[in-house]
Write a structure and sequence with these properties.
The chain is mainly α. About 70% of the residues lie in helices and about 5% in strands.
């Protein structure tokens, strides 16, 4: 449905009569997110956060594995009731580990979405200013374009402006 709507909108943009001084251009927002200074800053901050989480989770996983090995080695020494109790504790630890892992994944995803939203909010005034200065009527995302002329791609210009005006973005 979304693609059909995009195609219809683009059809009207292309074929409706327009003022020749104003034009339609496209922008590769993904490239801005990946190659701009603030985009790279977001990526590196998220990478550090993910690495710290992975390191902590690996430590917990190793502790659980050691606890499991110890329990298996004590199986014949412990009474059945004691073994069942320790096995139940181990299963609880595994459940808590899985919950922690999912929580960390969700936190990182939320941070990524939040940082991306911040970057897009800071990108909007830059696009508005660029559009006014260059008599641009509409800026469309490149992912929604089937075909377009290279000279209508403003990604490099916007990338330069973003690098000048936004230094970095802090993630939550």
């Amino acid at each position: 449905m979304k693609k059909i709507f995009t195609i219809i909108v683009l059809f009207f943009i292309i074929f409706l009569p327009s003022n020749s001084a104003e034009k339609v251009v496209y922008l590769d927002v993904e490239k801005i997110m990946q190659e701009s200074s603030p985009g790279k800053s977001i990526i590196s901050q998220l990478k550090k956060k993910r690495e710290i989480s992975i390191s902590n989770l690996k430590k917990k996983e190793k502790e659980i594995f050691e606890k499991e090995k110890k329990l298996i080695s004590q199986k014949n020494v412990l009474s059945q009731e004691e073994f069942e109790k320790k096995l139940k504790d181990l299963r609880g630890d595994i459940t808590n580990f899985q919950k922690d892992r999912n929580k960390k994944i969700n936190e990182i995803n939320k941070s990524r979405i939040s940082a991306t939203t911040k970057l897009l909010k800071k990108l909007t005034p830059i696009l508005e200013d660029y559009s006014n200065k260059n008599s641009i009527r509409i800026i469309v995302q490149k992912k929604n374009i089937v075909m377009g002329k290279k000279e209508d791609d403003i990604t490099k210009d916007i990338l330069d402006l973003v690098n000048q005006k936004i230094k970095n973005i802090k993630i939550d």
